[in-house]
Queue: 4 jobs
Job 1
Amino acid sequence: MTTTSASTFLKPFALRYSAGSSPRVVRRHTLPASEFRNLSLSDALSVFEIEREAFISVSGECPLHMDEVRHFLELCPELSLGWFEEGRLVAFVIGSGWDKDKLSQDAMTIHVPGGSTVHIHVLAVHHKCRQQGKGSIILWRYLQYLRCLPTVKRAVLMCEDFLVAFYQKAGFKDIGPSGIAVGPLTFTEMEYALGGGAYLRRNSGC
Ligand SMILES: CC(=O)SCCNC(=O)CCNC(=O)[C@H](O)C(C)(C)COP(=O)(O)OP(=O)(O)OC[C@H]1O[C@@H](n2cnc3c(N)ncnc32)[C@H](O)[C@@H]1OP(=O)(O)O
């Protein structure tokens, strides 16, 4: 098995202007208006606050509890992505490595280093920033980023039925009901093929 080298970590990249802002606006501080970067342990609390509002307040459950957020950000920060505006987390994705066709209960807690599949545990957008295209944008950026990781061939996730259309729009395919249930919640498993990596990597500035 291989481990991902530090050189594959995402270098933070700032967008020059936040959506709708004018290039002529002079900012009085040094935080980038908008930045995408891998998450680190120090982001765990911000991640969990978004999760608490997005999931726990709705169903009492969430994809990753605080200790699991910390676990994955420690084990595989290179499979996470955060979107920060003025230094504040507005959206994130957390993934881990996996190596089987379908997700099983093990996939909820383990990271398979160098696995050919990335299991996307959670995508969430801060509640004040939803329905503005941010979920679609960070997911698209994350998938582009995964194309640059040499061992990764596909991404998988499980979601509730009402989000199947959202993921289909992003290019995911429905691969049937998930074998995993959380209390009364059932899920559909979705897959995104990242194939053709060698050619794409040569031509995408990875
Ligand atoms: C693997 C997983 O993590 S599955 C769980 C996903 N996360 C959550 O449910 C947490 C709470 N929700 C969120 O954080 C966000 O609403 C997300 C991530 C689901 C979507 O992000 P947003 O920034 O709000 O979505 P965005 O603005 O990009 O919308 C894209 C499309 O998805 C649709 N959509 C967004 N949220 C939902 C929803 N909850 N139910 C149904 N459709 C939705 C929008 O209507 C839009 O469709 P349109 O283009 O036809 O108008």
Job 2
Amino acid sequence: MNKMTFIGAGSMAEALIAGMVARNFSPSVITVTNRTNKQRLIELKEKYGIQVEQDSQQALQQATIIVLAIKPKDAQTVLEQIKPFLNKEILILSVMAGISTQYIEQILELDIAVVRAMPNTSAMIGLSATAIAKGQFANQDHVEMATQLFVTVGVVELLKEQEIDIATAIAGSGPAYFYYIVEAMETKAKELGLAEGSAKRLINQTLLGAAAMLTKSSDSPAELRKKITSPKGTTEAGIHALAAAEVDQAIKEAIQAAYQRSVALGHTK
Ligand SMILES: NC(=O)C1=CN([C@@H]2O[C@H](COP(=O)(O)OP(=O)(O)OC[C@H]3O[C@@H](n4cnc5c(N)ncnc54)[C@H](OP(=O)(O)O)[C@@H]3O)[C@@H](O)[C@H]2O)C=CC1
Ligand SMILES: O=C(O)[C@@H]1CCC=N1
């Protein structure tokens, strides 16, 4: 059985741990460590029954998979820290935005298998859209291992590494864009006089239904939209307002900005 150590105990680490444990991944093989926040480790241990360890060297003992769930700015420090305790049998799984497998391999100065992954926080409920790409020393078995792991928290798409920045912009950051839209919909529904609870239930189910239609119907998004839009009807009025505000352009700009940021995070290292 593979033993997995998470370095970093933040939102992404928790989303992955929650999803894995909920899908019968044994908590006894998961160890988590962080930098200073002891209380956070206790909280994760109590919630998920996993092992926690403040000493990173201890945390790495017997680990066969190391998940790097730290911020990109902390990559170098952490890689330098763990370097003395690594060997070629270990698989490094990085979920850091922007950080390339090549960068990780270079700092570790070891022909070690690195798989770069970009999940999203919906991993928490088993619905992540995770993109993965392999580094130069990772083989098909490593890709399979990473896939099996991330499949426990959602769907997995194998990409070329240069495509991961695009996946980051649409899927890693993606849930936030939808939450942003929902925030505006809730605010306006309340302004118009609908009770908060009713607005929330209607909007959430609408989003869920639209997502399911996109997944299950053979129609394109444009065709699905057309089927809702009666001539001179309410949807047409709403879509006209969106077009007048150039919301499609704003969304493209958001994806472009997130994509550029992901690329830049890699370059600033
Ligand atoms: N949040 C998201 O939606 C997504 C995030 N990601 C990626 O996941 C990574 C983590 O993001 P997120 O969970 O949001 O970040 P958080 O800020 O929530 O967590 C970062 C964690 O890293 C720990 N850490 C920092 N330095 C060290 C160190 N030297 N040794 C050990 N642990 C350390 C922190 O510990 P302490 O608190 O003790 O300082 C903290 O537990 C990022 O690289 C991000 O790009 C990828 C996909 C989606
Ligand atoms: O905002 C970030 O940098 C991370 C990466 C993808 C989602 N959150």
Job 3
Amino acid sequence: MSSYLIRGVRVLGREWTDLLLRDGVVAETGPGLDPSGAQVIEADGLVALPGLVDLHTHLREPGREDAETVETGSRAAALGGYTAVCAMANTSPVADTAGVVEQVWRLGREAGLVDVQPIGAVTVGLAGERLAELGAMAASAAAVRIFSDDGFCVADPRLMRRALEYVKAFDGIIAQHAEEPRLTEGAQMHEGEVSTRLGLTGWPAVAEEAIIARDVLLAEHVGSRVHVCHLSTAGSVDIVRQAKARGVRVTAEVTPHHLLLTDELAASYDPVFKVNPPLRTAADVTALRAALAEGVIDIVATDHAPHAVEDKECEWAYARPGMVGLETALSVVLSTGALHRDGEPDWDLIAERMSRAPARIAGLAAHGHDPAPGAPANLTLVDPAARRVVDPGELASRSRNTPYAGTELPGRIVATFLHGRPTVLDGKAVK
Ligand SMILES: NC(=O)N[C@@H](CC(=O)O)C(=O)O
């Protein structure tokens, strides 16, 4: 295996150093390392971060390979600075058996662009009626430990309780898509002033908050772990804050789009802004940014949700919810300033919320390590000074449903290394 010398990089934005990657690990660090035998990468002006980890990615394979495949989604992830992604279970067939999660896991290994960790469904067919084979998925080669019916809520409280109890045996997690279905029937966007003005049926904040409140109580009652997917309201932040203060084992994620965009965008009737949960108000955005900085929200997760053109470029009411996000996540987070300190990106905090904490929650032992001697060489190099205008045609994802088309965003991923091998160099995918 070849070795790489990354010359003059600022690890987490700190002092300049060289990094020698060899045999899949960071072999040496320090200024002026001997480059002989290594491929040299000049990293003047670049910041090294532990490879980003996404706890919430839709890869669409099996079943909707026209929208994304494990390979195209993995490439998009690598270009976004990711070295590991957790693949959601709402595929076709649903990832509710050991066979399907092993298939996704194997496809991830074959693509070899990021580590793909499958998430298993909580209920058979995501139907919310009976538990899937959680133990068999956990014991499979894919070693599943996060289970989610994402796309749907595990709405039945008794089933949710049983799922939480079941995964406790192997320290698993139930990741909940918090949406009380009776409160969101026919919903098209956030319920509020804008939905009233547009005459669209609303998805009220309380539909999310009621489920989170219930689930933190259930997790507390059975002593198990619950993770809140794509938390989107100020009220949800308050509930999670209180639960954490009581010692409940709850973690939460926020998406880049909920940190930047608001429900006012629905007034365009452009379905690219239709997403689940819906874009909320400016006050929610402010609360989410503060909660992420504070740590009440543990991580940023993309909820990368690729959709084929016919599912997205149609009337608002018929469009599928979801946005692609892997290739823009870090830039969007940088643009919000949510993880800045004194007007500059706080790279240590960014590493925590986008790499270390998601790796810890998902139990991905090879990820989330700062580049230091002996650490697995899973890392990404960012040019913080670069700016780029998002061009949907240039995305590696098979789908184009980005809400940032034509938007100028800060920061650029220059290189990504997975187990010591480059997956991205000079901002381009290596394979
Ligand atoms: N987040 C989304 O808007 N879409 C998700 C599923 C979902 O949560 O509805 C998808 O799979 O497309």
Job 4
Amino acid sequence: MSATDTIFALSSGGLPSGVAVIRLSGARSLQAVEELCGRIPPVRRASLLSIRNRNGNKLDEGLILVFPGPNSFTGEDCAELQIHGGRATVKAVLAALESMEGLRPAEAGEFSRRAFLNGRMDLVEVEGLADLIAAETEMQRRLAAEHASGGLSLLYESWAKRLTHARAMIEAELDFADEDDVPGSVASSIWRDMHALEQEILNHVADARTGEIVRDGLKVVIAGPPNAGKSSLLNHLAKRDVAIVTDIPGTTRDVLHVDLDLSGFAVRLYDTAGLRATEDIVEREGIRRTHLSMSDAHLLLLLSEDAQWTSLDGIYDGQTLRVRTKSDQVKTPWPEDGADVTISVKSGDGVSDLLDAIGRHLPNLEAGSALALPTRQRHILNLSTARENIRRAIEATNGLDIQAEYLRLAGQSLGRVTGRVDVENLLDVIFSEFCIGK
Ligand SMILES: Nc1nc2c(ncn2[C@@H]2O[C@H](COP(=O)(O)OP(=O)(O)OP(=O)(O)O)[C@@H](O)[C@H]2O)c(=O)[nH]1
Ligand SMILES: [K+]
Ligand SMILES: [Mg+2]
């Protein structure tokens, strides 16, 4: 296996499908097209050609495109075979490709990896592309598109430039320190800018929680005593029978979740085991898991059918909505019950109010604004290290050269985010997020 092999893969989705796209990348891509189709079609233009194996048997007919490097997705010679998406057809064409010298099936993420190694994309763009392929809601799409198209990279590059400029000015001051005609305050405007940059990075990192919520979804945990109607609510909102519902208290033991799309945001809703003191070993394990899922919840829905609100002291101290359930059974309304929302999944009453209340916990993002938010722990760690080193540079009192060194380290951390600086050890992790053919 080698990075110089020509690779190929089915890049479109599951079969059968109307059209299937097989992608090739590497030095032998064009030659492979010639062997299959008898000739190399004009570049970057779809040509309808017959595809034959080496015995001359016609396998299919399809639109063939070639993209010579370096202006291709991977930077290498690439080709695309748009063929019929029947399983046997795709299998036959893949087999014909595999039989060719120097060609092999691509590994997961290998096309993107080559694009990165050939400078066609940086790491933030690569990660954005992975997110774009996985995006299921409008906000996930917008965030991923911003990253994939280089919006975030541009911001990080502008920061890196400011660091480089500051270092250059400090170097100049060091070089000419003995000469009288260099004003000693060259650096003062630089340090003002470094103060500003530190604050900008700080603000950006503070948005990480929003970025994570947009990318991974708002985690909403349904909790409360047994039989409060937790699983019924999950099923109602999911519009399918995900969880078992019975009138036996302690029915749910495992934590279940469903993904909802609320105003374009992903919301991950968790159903949990009812909270009560119990000697049942299985139920106790369920309650332990309930506590675990509460620990990283963004929002808790505390359910109760009789307004006896379970105490969360020492268990959970985040955002909570008190939800009174089974309103269809309540004959006389109970005004002072402390509930934020009252619902019945039987009649549907109050459910849209509940969704509105959950919606108020979603990030408040202006329509149409660029979503240049950090989304990954990898970004946050490197950005925080960069910020720390800028701070050290500002505060250092033991010489300009030490200060310049801290700025260099800050630039290096920024470089790790986009992949300009030693990230070799990270590549396997990042590209394994992709599926084959990407
Ligand atoms: N009338 C009425 N009954 C409801 C409503 N919601 C749930 N129930 C009933 O309440 C009982 C318990 O519902 P579940 O959804 O299993 O309650 P749970 O909180 O998940 O219970 P555990 O998993 O045991 O903790 C079932 O018999 C449901 O049919 C409602 O809005 N109205
Ligand atoms: K139950
Ligand atoms: Mg349940």
